[in-house]
Amino acid sequence: MIFGTMPDGRTVEAATISAGDLSATLLTHGARLQDLRLAGIGFGLVLGAPSLAPYLGPMGYSGAMVGRFANRIAHGRFTLDGHEIRTDRNGAGGHTLHGGAHAAEQQVWHLTEHGPDRAGFALTMPDGQNGFPGRLEVRVSYTIAPPARLSIVTEATTDAPTPCSFAQHAYFSLAPGDARGHRLRVDAAHYLPVDDTLIPTGRIAPVAGTPFDFRAPRTIGEAGLDHNFCLSRNRTDLREVAALSAPATGLTMTVETTETGIQVYDGGGTADMTGHGGEALPAHAGVALETQVWPDAPNRPDFPDAILRPGESYRHEVVYAFR
């Protein structure tokens, strides 16, 4: 089904998949999760717009696969195998954000597979795009399994060493209104403090005794979350790392991943976004739970390795399960 048309005339397709109690609408623009519905619930579980235009503007990251390096690279530069690499400085503070301007989230991906419960997408990111070395071949698959389990697998290969870390950037809402009233659990004993431009200071800090301790479920509140929680030093087998719940509706979502970190963003910027019915959304209308490698890892040898090399395969899985 055609969802919209890009300014250059290319069409953007929509694909719907479902199984059990869960259904999702996906777009070839950004390999994007545009809508997610649970049987018996009268609202979407992710923020989304009814037309393409908002995704070309303030909703560029909403529901998209972001990369080739999710999150931030300080000052748009890093050293790789003795060579300084400079990347597009599209973020506040002069940093590279989510791979630079018009990265994976603004590309029209190829729909490679579409069945009742699954869909696949592919994208080639050329050598030199936004300053990054290496031709990167990326594949993303979405699969729904009963009763209400959405699995997203991202795989990539490269012909030259390059940073590689993709993230699904959906904003989740388990009850309409201010999502800071949701309860959050994150199984992390440490987090990354950041400076005023959201670049990690380099300190790996204990959450104990801070507003960032979510090891026991509690209300998100006013902590001002846009931080990486440190899950592990290396990619692992799939395991549960977080849970989000809404007391107002009784809905709960768990997060499972293979990744070393999870960026929790409380959605302060959603006031510029549009809802499924075309309505303006308030600030904090949804919460992003982005599993990924730690931010600024290419500049931090003590952070988990984010470099993909020829002959290696990148594989990242995240599962969002609802009850």
Q: What is this entry, summarized?
A:
With 323 residues, this protein is mainly beta.
Notes on the protein architecture:
- This protein has 323 residues and is mostly beta strands.
- The chain has one domain (2-322): Beta-galactosidase, Chain A, domain 5 (Distorted Sandwich), CATH 2.70.98.10.
- The chain is 0% helix and 41% strand.
- The chain has no helices and 27 strands.
- The chain has strands at 2-5, 11-19, 22-27, 32-38, 65-66, 72-73, 77-80, 83-86, 96-97, 110-114, 118-125, 136-145, 149-158, 162-163, 167-168, 171-172, 183-186, 190-191, 205-206, 218-219, 226-230, 239-246, 251-257, 261-265, 287-292, 307-308, 314-322.
- A 9-stranded antiparallel beta sheet has the order 10-11-12-13-27-23-22-17-20, with no helix packed on it.
- It is globular.
- The protein starts with a strand and ends with a strand.
- The model has no long low-confidence stretch (mean pLDDT 97).
- Average of pLDDT: 97
Strand content: 35-45%
CATH architectural type: Distorted Sandwich
Count the DSSP helices.
0
Silhouette? globular
SSE arrangement:
Layout: E1 2-5, E2 11-19, E3 22-27, E4 32-38, E5 65-66, E6 72-73, E7 77-80, E8 83-86, E9 96-97, E10 110-114, E11 118-125, E12 136-145, E13 149-158, E14 162-163, E15 167-168, E16 171-172, E17 183-186, E18 190-191, E19 205-206, E20 218-219, E21 226-230, E22 239-246, E23 251-257, E24 261-265, E25 287-292, E26 307-308, E27 314-322
Antiparallel strand pairs: 1-2, 2-3, 3-4, 5-15, 6-9, 7-8, 10-11, 11-12, 12-13, 13-27, 14-26, 16-25, 17-20, 17-22, 18-19, 18-21, 21-24, 22-23, 23-27, 24-25
